[in-house]
Design a protein that fits this description.
9 strands, Rossmann fold, elongated, disordered C terminus, 501 residues, 6-stranded mixed beta sheet, alpha/beta
């Protein structure tokens, strides 16, 4: 790669009190394992730099993980003395051999002062600002380094919604308002941040960089956006494929001879399935197993795309009769034997169905034409209406829309899971996600219903997947923007981002 004349390397440095989570956040931002994460002080004892993103022109955005600040007050005194001979002796000789972590902290901070462009200072958002007694001394250390500082709120817990995050940010901004080198406060939890929040961080970084780095940083941010939007589109491709497979999946069942059993004949006409029908049970079980495998495969792909480790766990699919759409061919010959029982009895049939708690759907339609066609003609019309050339079991439209909702929630769970947290584990969805997803699914409901109808009419998987892809992509964008309104700039036209998908 030929480096252009105006290419630049921009250094972002993670700094915090010891054991606040710098290395954990670095792993999440870099999408790979670096350093060592343990619940003890001074795990990182040297500064480590890693490329966060680069460009073909030779620009690089480097993220530095540094030793934690331990005894902040003593460290501040050492730094202020470092320019005189006694201070140099204490730092380079005494501290180097008697207190290695303390020496490492001093060296890292001197390097930061010389090389850093922006300092990312992490605080533990789980504690009140006034309770973090070390912050005041560390603010003075950051002022000594003479670099712009962005405050990152870490250890915030599960996603709570933008309003709660904004309240915490305002509280911390007020707490450090007397330090002019602090230029902003941003929520960015290493365990539960979303990738669109990282763009907010880059926007804040760009706002405090020197003007001579603006062009290089704009290229770096565009490269970062393109990479993440490619991941987004690939994720939507995986989910669209899984949903299309479910929508078009069918399992054959044997045609049933109903004989003279009027109850079973009517039940079959309205799309029901007998509990004692072993062939239908077998078909339903096969569908459920295939859906389970496809959900786990799609989740594994999401995990891989987002730079996470681990695999999806077993999906427990609660199989309720209403989730299945059973289409059986009615035997025209044998159905005629009960014609006298129901011919012309539309009112009575509807009343019987309602009294039995059954759903009047296709049944009402069939009842309306019994008197004209007779039972045999009605069976023939039912077969044509349902397209039931042979018996099939598939997923109901309601259930498919539920799967669409579940796919969006699963995407949010993966998109918020930080690599620093360890292997992927599906936990509880954030409570406020459900309302936002439900609002989005309601908006896209008519389009989904049209797609499910096409699948019922016999459209193939590829056709359904092509129709679903812009729907799932648009819905996921809509949900993200409901959760993070400031992310609108992420979803500018794809061509402007130089995307490959």
């Amino acid at each position: 790669m030929d480096r252009s004349a105006d290419a630049a390397t921009i250094n972002l440095n993670l700094v915090s009190h010891t054991n606040v989570g710098k290395t954990t956040l670095a792993r999440t931002l870099l999408r790979r394992d670096i350093g060592e994460v343990r619940d003890q002080a001074h795990v990182t004892d040297t500064a480590e730099g890693h490329v966060l993103v680069d460009t073909p022109r030779g620009d690089a955005l480097r993220l530095w993980d540094t030793p934690g600040l331990g005894d902040s007050a003593r460290l501040l005194r050492r730094l202020r003395m470092s320019d005189n001979p006694i201070g140099w002796l204490l730092t380079q000789v005494w501290d180097r051999f008697t207190d290695r972590p303390f020496y490492s902290s001093q060296q890292a901070l001197r390097n930061l002062r010389e090389e850093s462009h922006v300092i990312l200072y992490l605080v533990n958002a789980a504690e009140e600002p006034a309770s973090a007694g070390y912050v005041e001394a560390e603010m003075q250390i950051l002022g000594w380094m003479d670099k712009p500082v962005l405050l990152l709120l870490n250890q915030m817990g599960a996603p709570r919604g933008r309003e709660a995050d904004a309240a915490d940010e305002a509280m911390w901004r007020q707490h450090v308002a007397t330090y002019p080198w602090v230029r902003g406060a941003i929520s960015l939890d290493a365990f539960a941040r979303c990738w669109v929040q990282e763009d907010e961080l880059l926007q804040a970084v760009g706002a405090v960089l020197p003007a001579d780095h603006a062009a290089a940083f704009a290229r770096l941010r565009a490269a970062w956006r393109a990479r993440n939007l490619n991941v987004f589109e690939a994720s939507m491709h995986a989910l669209g494929g899984q949903l299309a497979a479910a929508a078009t999946d069918r399992e054959s069942i044997d045609a049933r001879t109903f004989g003279g059993n009027a109850g079973r004949w009517v039940t079959s006409m309205i799309g029901g399935a007998d509990k004692a029908d072993a062939d239908s049970e077998r078909a339903m079980s096969a569908l459920a197993k295939r859906l389970d495998r496809s959900v786990r495969a799609a989740t594994d792909e999401l995990i891989r795309l987002h730079g996470l480790s681990g695999r999806a766990g077993e999906e427990i699919l609660a199989r309720v009769a209403g989730h299945f759409d059973v289409s059986k061919r009615v035997n025209v010959g044998t159905s005629g034997v009960i014609g006298g029982l129901v011919s012309g009895a539309l009112g009575g049939l509807a009343a019987d169905l309602a009294a039995g708690g059954l759903t009047v759907g296709a049944g009402a339609l069939i009842g309306g034409i019994l008197g004209v066609l007779g039972a045999g003609g009605a069976a023939q019309a039912y077969n044509l209406t349902r397209g039931a050339k042979e018996g099939k079991v598939g997923w109901s439209r309601i259930f498919l829309t539920q799967r669409f909702t579940a796919a969006l929630l699963r995407y949010l769970a993966v998109a918020h899971f930080g690599r620093g947290r360890g292997d992927w584990v599906l936990g509880e969805y954030a409570p406020h996600w459900h309302a936002r997803v439900d609002e989005t699914v309601a908006q896209f409901g008519p389009a989904l219903e049209s797609i499910w109808m096409r699948a019922d009419a016999g459209a193939g998987r590829e056709e359904i997947e092509r129709a679903l892809r812009p729907i799932i992509s648009g819905a996921a964008r809509d949900v993200l923007l409901r959760l993070y309104p400031g992310a609108a700039g992420m979803f500018s036209p794809m061509a402007e981002r130089g995307l490959t998908t």
